[in-house]
DNA sequence: ATCATTGCAAACACTTTGCATACGC
DNA sequence: GCGTATGCAAAGTGTTTGCAATGAT
């Protein structure tokens, strides 16, 4: 339904408003993309996919928007491999897995006791990043 | 003692020989630096520090050597933040902590049950990377 | 009319590559 | 003398910045 779509857009708008982010068209689109594609996309993935819909979109805007979202804390950045930042809408600490064959990044729903500690060996912990690498279930089947 | 130093160098030489790496002067120096400075240095740190001793050293050689060591499996690369790879001589899986104030990277000696699993949610795990961020004990004291 | 967003192009930082030189055995 | 290690300079990649144009209220 169109009503449903408009309703969803309105919710996103209100969400950005609450975060003091002016809900421009591009920002809404990028936010929507992140929410609907929890594949930890790179800037390039976001840019390429949204360009189909929004031909005037520039990569700079994607960078600007993601950095704005990062600063406002509504997305987090993963640096699993050098030379590509991936963006993640889900902000709760969780585990990531990257397949060395297909390059996909999966969320792992695994509790880790490390998440509960606030002080470790005298250091105050504010962020947790855990990622595993290997061969994903899909690639394993293909062999 | 000079004898001690020579003995240590001889051991490093033999170590590289066993790994089928021709133990050139530069390679020995870089390996020695990594072993003696377990601070997860970046290429730049290694380059700047060794340049004092070896004025002719070029950054390319540092890159070449580290990539060789990576391929041969005698060091591992950390990508805690985008746009800087840090090199780690210790190859056993362990936890890293990066201070957001001073930028130092510490090893954390913490057992993590995740290290023992070989299959998680159908994915075959071959590498584990865990890093935490926050404020290190030294920076906490300074406040 | 004003102010923020957008987007091109240039600048940047880190890393890799090509190729000529120098070194060690 | 031959083969590898070295190092400069250029290319490559992903990201940021400067600034002018555009858009929204």
Structure overview:
Two copies of one chain form a homodimer. Chain A is an alpha+beta fold. Chain A folds into two domains: 2-78, Arc Repressor Mutant, subunit A (Orthogonal Bundle); 92-142, Ferric-uptake regulator, C-terminal dimerisarion domain (Dna Ligase, domain 1). Helix content of chain A is 42%, strand content 21%. Chain A has helices at 2-18, 25-36, 43-53, 59-72, 137-142; strands at 76-78, 86-88, 95-99, 105-108, 119-120, 123-135. A four-stranded mixed sheet of chain A has the order 4-3-6-5. Chain A has a two-stranded antiparallel sheet with strand order 1-2. In chain A, a hairpin with a 5-residue loop joins strand 3 and strand 4. In chain A, helix 3 (43-53) packs across helix 4. The first copy, chain A, is globular and about 45 Å long. The termini of chain A are far apart. The model of chain A has no long low-confidence stretch (mean pLDDT 88). Strand 6 of chain A pairs antiparallel with strand 6 of chain B, so a sheet runs across the interface. The structure holds a DNA duplex (25 and 25 nucleotides).
Task: Describe the secondary structure blueprint for this structure.
The structure is a homodimer of 143-residue chains.
Chain A: H1 2-18, H2 25-36, H3 43-53, H4 59-72, E1 76-78, E2 86-88, E3 95-99, E4 105-108, E5 119-120, E6 123-135, H5 137-142
Parallel strand pairs in A: 3-6
Antiparallel strand pairs in A: 1-2, 3-4, 5-6
Helix pairs in contact in A: 3-4
Chain B binds a DNA duplex (25 and 25 nucleotides) through helix 2 and helix 4.
